[in-house]
Amino acid sequence: MEKQTSGKTGREVTRRDFIKTSAAVSLAAMLPGAGSLFATGSDRLKIGLVGCGGRGTGAVQDCIASSEGIELVAMGDLFKDRLEASYTELAAALPKESLKVKNRNKYVGFDAYKKVIKSGIDIVLLVTPPGYRPEHIAYAVKSGVHVFMEKPVAVDPVGARSVIASSELAEKQGLAMVAGTQYRHHQPYLEIVQRIRDGQIGEIIGGQSYSIRGWPGDWGEKALRLMNEREAGQISEMEYQCRNWYHFDWTCGDFIVEQAIHQLDAMNWMKVMGMGARQARTGKEFGNVYDHFAVEYEYPDGQRLAHMCRQMEGVSVRISIRITGTRGTVYASGNIAQISGEKPWAYEGESPNPQVAEHADLIKSIRSGKPLNEGCRIAETSLVAIMGRMSAYTGRELSWDWVMKDSELDLRPPKYEFGDAPIREIPIPGKTQLV
Asked: Which listed residue, 44, 48, 258, 278, has the most CB atoms within 10 A of its CB?
């Protein structure tokens, strides 16, 4: 799989693109259209899965649960064992009429995504580690296939610009691109966004977002096992990094990009100063990424967003956003959405699964002939997280314009093949070069 040239986008990012001082209005710009399904509602759509890990397997189930007439016909992954484990799980969970993957449509290797996309599908679910996402998106759009893309969609500025270019091409071709940033499809958040737009909390002053949590799943155990396999010569360095993808910059983007993007997704800003390090996850098995970040985003008119994220074992959990205005304050976390101040309010409605809703919105937009395109916005949100990481890694204050237009940071390896694969050193602020 060869690298693609990024081609710097000429798209200007103006203050209006970023929310009229309200970070949440940027979220509102992503809300799905109001198109209705075709009258029959029975048009069958064929989907293909690229990336057969836990999230990919779950995305297939979410997609099929979201709408009638969806069938999985092709699967691809870098590793055969992952693909077969996913297929076994799906075979046990899905109705037979929804799982129609023949052995000839199971693809393995770095180029598996191309074979899935060219297998005659209508929609591709791109759920590999995010380092591959820009190239996979570009190939899907050029091939005329609708895209569901798990968050984030890039791990560096070169990748983000590529996704913006793909989104612009998708717009011209009438293709849908929906991202796995589920808050955009979560009813409590949609309601609170509308209230912010209606002026219920007044003018926005600033906000805070938090993604403070423990280690994700069994990654600590898994990372140590994989490192031992590599040191014993059982797997190559490249296979080690690909399987232990959560702990390397080029595959994951670090967890401020891969995970904390959910909290940053409602807020886009223009200048950033960040810091971070690794204090708990210090072993070699944890690659070259940090375990905590503290970042401040500053808007030209003086509004500020403070973002903190952490992944350490045995810590308290806080996953939320807070937006402060002149007349009130918004607090949102999971199914909770509240406003305090002059006009107090709390969401009391239903909270359908947003990971299912995002697929329902994608499919509805395709069948209505009004394809939903979230590509540019999710690329920008990914870049917001990326610039926070870049600031923390280098110790430098960064501007949005420079990161969007001028940064040449490209974390991809020189080539995609199993064998040796150099690892960048753990970043040290003040020493790590800004690219």
From this structure: 48
Q: Kindly state the tokens that stand for 341.
A: 């101040």
Rg of the chain in Å (alpha carbons): 21
Here the CATH number for the domain that contains residue 104 is: 3.40.50.720
Instruction: Specify the DSSP class assigned to residue 182.
Output: G
Percent of the chain with pLDDT over 70: 89
Q: Is 176 inside any structural domain?
A: yes
Cβ neighbors of 220 (< 8 A, separation 6 or more) are 281, 313
Instruction: Count Cβ atoms below 10 Å from residue 384 Cβ, excluding itself.
Output: 30
Structural domain count of the chain: 1
Length reported for the chain? 435
Please tell me the pTM assigned to this model: 0.90
Task: Between 300 and 286, name the one with better pLDDT.
Answer: 286
- Separation between Cα atoms, residue 248 and residue 241, nearest integer Å: 7
Amino acid letter, residue 152: P
How many whole angstroms separate alpha carbon 365 and alpha carbon 28? 17
Helix (H, G, I), strand (E, B) or coil at 207: strand
**Residue 192, domain member (yes or no):** no
User: Chain centroid to CA 364: how far?
Assistant: 21
Which whole-number Å values give the CA distances from 140 to 24, 32, 48, 163, 280, in the listed order?
Answer: 30, 21, 11, 11, 39
Is 284 domain-assigned? no
Task: Supply the mean pLDDT for the chain.
Answer: 90
Domain that holds residue 125: 16-185+357-381
User: pLDDT (tens digit, 9 = 90+) per residue, 384-419?
Assistant: 999 999 999 999 999 999 999 999 999 999 999 999
